[in-house]
Design a protein that fits this description.
Elements lengths: L7 H12 L21 E4 L5 E6 L5 E3 L16 E6 L7 H16 L5 E7 L7 E5 L5 E2 L13 E3 L14 H16 L13 H4 L9 E3 L23 H11 L3
The structure holds zinc ion.
Length: about 250
């Protein structure tokens, strides 16, 4: 399936912008950061990988690997993540299956992460809570800050009041949006929020910034509103894959 550049992209941005809280502007250009020889340190990540980290401009750590912008404290400490539905009766079972497949064929396929459960949420349910509602899809936080949080992720399956263009391509939109939102659910911020994103892309900054940046900006990231292919057609870019592999280990 391929998505032409949809008008829904604009609606997507606008709706999300109203749904999430923008964070402060960071005008420092990390691409001009000069690496300090001798200040590079090796840090172990929870899933058996390690990265070389050096101080960058504006107090941002820069990792010597090209991967997306991540809120470091939001990285989940364990690979098994529970997912539950708050109002499954409001969603066609086929669409619920589609969301599960989108997550399994992207972030799970490329890492040690395993998303399980997918049943009705209970009050005590940990993990990622999905609520279906006809509004702009979003997450209330990044990564582990969603753990057990009511309405932590909102997904749209109706497209009557938001992004009506998706009604003609519901399966595609549901897939691509789910893959993007689950990127937030594992800690990824919007790629266009980066200080080294092109100026015209930074005008689309939205939501929480990452605090662990990279040397190389990814114009093809599924997390980038500035990607000329909306949500990268629901696929992870090579650098998205490198990112999730680095943080959450190889499958
Ligand atoms: Zn987003």
């Amino acid at each position: 399936m391929r998505l032409t550049r949809l008008t829904i992209a604009t609606a997507f941005v606008a709706a999300l912008a109203s749904a999430c809280t923008p964070t402060h502007e960071n005008t420092t250009d990390a691409s001009n950061a000069s690496p300090q020889l001798g200040s590079v340190r090796v840090e172990e990540l929870p899933f058996g990988t390690s990265v070389r980290v050096k101080p960058g401009a504006g107090g941002m750590d820069v990792i010597e690997l090209p991967f997306g912008s991540v809120l470091r404290s939001a990285i989940w400490p364990k690979p098994a993540l529970d997912v539950c539905w708050e109002n499954p009766g409001d969603v066609d079972p086929n669409y619920r299956t589609l969301v599960k497949q989108a997550v399994e064929d992207t972030w799970q396929k490329e890492s040690k992460l395993r998303f399980g459960g997918w049943a009705q949420c209970q009050a005590s349910s940990l993990g990622i809570h999905i609520r279906a509602a006809d509004e702009g899809p979003h997450t209330k936080a990044l990564g582990k800050y969603l753990d057990g949080r009511p309405e932590g992720m909102v997904l749209n399956f109706q497209f009557a009041r938001w992004s009506q263009g998706c009604q003609q391509k519901k399966e595609f939109c549901i897939w691509a949006i789910a893959a993007h939102e689950f990127g937030h659910a594992i800690g990824f911020a919007h790629e266009q929020n980066r200080a080294d994103a092109p100026f015209e892309c930074q005008s689309e900054r939205q939501g929480t910034n990452g605090d662990w940046n990279v040397t190389s900006y990814d114009e093809h990231s599924i997390m980038n509103y500035c990607n000329t292919t909306w949500n990268n057609d629901g696929h992870l870019s090579p650098r998205d894959i490198q990112a999730v592999t680095t943080i959450y280990g190889t499958p």
